[in-house]
Amino acid sequence: MARSSRFRRGEHQRETSWRQDPLYDFMLKRTAKINRKTKETDIVLTLNVDGTGKYSIKTPIPFFTHMLEAFARHGLFDLNLKATGDTHVDDHHLVEDIGLCLGEAFSSAVGNKKGMTRYGHFVLPMDEVLTLAAVDFAGRPCLVYDSKVKVGKIKNFDIELVVEFFQAFVNTAQINLHIHVLKVGNKHHVVESVFKAVTRALDMATKIDPRHKSIPSTKGSL
Ligand SMILES: [Mn+2]
Questions:
Q1: What is the span of the domain harbouring residue 46?
Q2: Nearest Cα to 34, choosing from 172, 177, 198, 175?
Q3: 59 C-alpha to center of ligand 1: Å?
Q4: The total number of structural domains that make up the chain
Q5: pLDDT digits (tens, 9 = 90+) for 144-180
Q6: Please, which residues bridge with residue 158 across strands?
């Protein structure tokens, strides 16, 4: 009997306090679904910020698909993406529009950022290459992209599109993102290290820290 009543008391305490728990808002809600269709591209994307890195990515650009798979896996974000577009013209429209949709999904999923860490950073080695990414969910879009490898091709993929992707992502996510390739090398390593460093920084920044009882800003909003 004693054990049973303790259990009931515990249940009751949880019942009355769970709505005040900053974790509660997010465990249920940090997801987003984005549909975007224009004459150039058709994109359906779902994101769960509190995922485990499960993904299903379908784009007609194999190297870019590889990058987005790495993004989902290493940021522990669940990401489903089906994207088609006028890639017979150029990959530019589709890569940029996926960046816009992914940024929109992050912005929507994190909501008012209550209880969120806000800042994140990562320094990622990939063999001879070393890349730093730092992010602030500031509510203001700003990208600083610093790499000696900004042009060229990886198979058919145009490396110039990497900065286009992150600029689009930053614009709709409303974040401040610094990407610095500190040590260049193989082009595939450079680009992949950028995607992995960014996603690890995003994972850190989007984590809920229960010590934050409110929105992580002295202004009171972000
Ligand atoms: Mn690779």
A1: 24-206
A2: 172
A3: 16
A4: 1
A5: 999 999 999 999 999 999 999 999 999 999 999 999 9
A6: 153
